[in-house]
Design brief:
Distance between the termini: 49 Å
Number of helices: 7
Order of helices and strands: EEHHEEEEEEHEHEEEEEEHHEEH
Strand content: 25-35%
Largest sheet: 9 strands, mixed
Helix content: 10-25%
Radius of gyration: 21 Å
CATH architecture of the largest domain: 2-Layer Sandwich
Shape: globular
CATH topology of the largest domain: Pseudouridine synthase
Number of strands: 17
Structural class: alpha+beta
Number of domains: 3
């Protein structure tokens, strides 16, 4: 399982489409599909259903849904039905640390981590398979060799890549067991009331827009439990720089959680941060915001630190990455503006 803070806003693709017979008896959908799709395990089908990607007559259903006659069933996946062979590309990589077991990289903005719809080349994975031989692969992730976790296209910062099978298993378990430590810096809209806090709420795909995610009540049984801890680093009146520590690693977690509490990330194109949320109506202020938006490709979010246990030596390792120059420039603009108005 690949646990992640964020993942690119992936489209979903129909991998299987079935129509139940007119004489179909009531039967759990996971059992129904196991008989017809022998290449997919029951646990995989249940995971697909939990993610909201198992549809009956166009609507998501749970794995215990009973199939009825003439039901139209779609099994969706976040990657297209195509050859997922990676093409090595000579793309420079900013390597923070490397040994024979793992490599830690600093991902720039506007770079997708792995191939997906509309991004089959130019990804970090294309670069990695060029620079490193025989990265380990696993199950359904042929196009993601060595990948332990992911961050969004416009999110910058630290990623760890496994160079051996043993390291991939070991590091993945650390992320799954939450024994790794990850901290992010995010610039969010608004002046947060508290100096620190915790955001809790299950995260799942939106029922209205399958490309984005939203928070659901824990008792709804939809989505995955998610917890984000944050503390204020610096205040700029209309926006706030926060440090986020992840207790879980869900898709778009920081972005979705801060959107949920009314403080979307600055210039977040998918979650409403790309318009003025707080501030004045003065034309001068609007021009200032436009100039700030031009500094960033998307959400102002940086994977700042990563703490892991080395899979081979057992040594605890902590990595830190500098904020990108554009992020620093953005903060300096806000610092100057908040002090002079």
């Amino acid at each position: 399982m690949i646990e992640e803070e964020e993942s690119d806003s992936e489209d979903l693709f129909e991998h299987h489409h079935l129509i139940a017979d007119t004489g179909q008896e009531l039967l759990r959908i996971d059992k129904f599909l196991m008989d017809r799709l022998p290449t997919i395990s029951r646990s995989k089908l249940q995971a697909i259903a939990k993610d909201g990607n198992l549809l009956v007559n166009g609507k998501p259903v749970k794995s215990n849904y009973k199939v009825h006659p003439k039901d139209e069933i779609s099994v969706l996946q976040p990657f297209p039905v195509r050859d997922k062979t990676l093409v090595p590309e000579n793309i420079p990589i900013d390597i923070i640390y490397e040994d024979d077991t793992l490599v830690v990289v600093n991902k720039p903005s506007n770079m997708v981590v792995h191939p997906g719809y509309g991004n089959y080349t130019g990804t970090l994975m294309n670069a990695l398979v060029y620079h490193f031989d025989n990265l380990p692969k696993r199950d359904d992730y042929e196009s993601r060799p060595g990948l332990v976790h992911r961050i969004d296209k416009h999110t910058t910062g630290i990623l760890v890549i496994a160079k051996t099978e043993e390291a991939l298993v070991h590091l993945s378990k650390q992320f799954f067991d939450r024994t790794s430590d990850r901290k992010y810096y995010a610039l969010v809209w608004g002046d947060l009331e508290e100096e620190e806090g915790t955001i809790t709420g299950s995260i799942g795909r939106s029922q209205r827009n399958r490309k984005v995610f939203q928070v659901y009540d824990e008792d709804e049984g939809y989505g995955k439990h998610a917890v984000t801890h944050y503390k204020v680093i610096e205040r700029f009146r209309y926006v706030t720089l926060v440090e986020c520590k992840l207790e879980t690693g869900r898709t778009h977690q920081i972005r979705v959680h801060f959107k949920h509490i009314g403080h979307p990330l600055f210039h977040d194109l998918e979650y409403g941060g790309d318009k003025i949320i707080k501030g004045t109506t003065f034309t001068k202020y609007k021009q200032f915001i436009d100039n700030c938006f031009k500094l960033t490709d998307g959400q102002a979010l940086h994977a700042k630190t990563l703490g892991i246990t080395h899979p081979k030596t057992g040594e605890r390792m902590d990595f830190d990455s500098e904020l990108p120059d554009t992020f620093k420039q953005l903060l300096e603009k806000w610092r100057t503006y908040s002090q002079n108005t």
